[in-house]
């Protein structure tokens, strides 16, 4: 039997490989968060009033300085997590012990890897959610610019994919912008849910030292600590599930937008032209320009939804207290957020370069598209609606001369083609931008104070 030596004991090589799983790779995304969490923990331990201090003020500074060095190494790609480390926590502890001796050996005092990974994931989630919000708002802004540029251009509105009523390019584009702004409500909710600190709960039952959990929460820029130490551990996995469920809603919006772009850029429609440099070709057909980006976004929506479901399914049947099953929520969490952010970024580029074919849009109008509008005109003149409905149905040819541009301009009520308030939506974009700027400034200010160097720059 082959065994390998680790910080936590001698472990069978196959068992070590199996239990470490993807952590040696996935945890590279958590190095920064782990170092920041460790800095707060050491700062708190240095203030515990013991006869013999765990860390003096000078000791604390030495440890934090080394943690900053590890963050810098991680950004350069030179920090490694080995199989023997198993995860980021023991990798950081190994480096600290190698550089600082007993100071490194003290760092795990009053802490478990359970609350360590929980705080890492919440710190990671805090930064990543702000990134998702930035990118969602960026795409909404591009859609509103697109809507403003083509505000007066008619477009056939469809139900069941069949021609239905007069619409416009602006109505189409701003609908998706407003959807993303509504998704921001969910993202803010996830941000608030995530904004509580589990550090200090240890293995879920607290510790015998008089630690200050409010202090660590404050140092890390969290709103407050999670009160109950058992719940702090139990919340792991569910928190990731909540965040993934909310970013999955963003992906649903993106998937429908992608589907529209695929359909309306088909030659049979020709309403929009995707930028050729963002389309891919065929290995056999020289003429092809495929909407692969939109197709992949449509598929990745299912991937992110599956990530959310995976996390929820893993957590739902667990007994209270830590269970190793929770390790399997980490991959879907990191993958789901990364996928969402990449899709938001690439869709913003696509929309920015999207072109409109006004001739094709106008050619899509047939007399029947104006039927509902005509029926309401007759109602306004005193005819009962169902009578008007039946009359128009048998006199569709009378609608041939209607101008689509006049039809969309005539609908002036709130939110209709002639009543779109793009400035209102743009003001909501501005408010969302202000939120992320303020939240990020508050968070980064806390970390700057903790590390003693400007964060995130570290210069």
Written overview of the protein:
- The chain is mainly α and 459 residues long.
- It folds into three domains: 3-109, Fumarase C, Chain B, domain 1 (Orthogonal Bundle), CATH 1.10.275.10; 116-212 and 226-363 and 421-448, Fumarase C, Chain A, domain 2 (Up-down Bundle); 367-410.
- The protein is 61% helix and 6% strand.
- The chain contains 18 helices and eight strands.
- The protein has helices spanning 13-20, 23-26, 31-45, 57-76, 88-100, 102-106, 113-149, 169-194, 213-219, 229-234, 238-264, 292-316, 330-353, 358-363, 371-380, 385-393, 404-410, 422-451, and strands at 3-6, 9-12, 154-159, 162-168, 196-197, 224-225, 272-273, 355-356.
- The strands form four sheets. It has a two-stranded antiparallel sheet. A two-stranded antiparallel sheet has the order 3-4.
- Helix 7 packs parallel to helix 13.
- It is elongated, with a radius of gyration of 28 Å.
- It starts with a strand and ends in an 8-residue tail after the last helix.
- The model has no long low-confidence stretch (mean pLDDT 95).
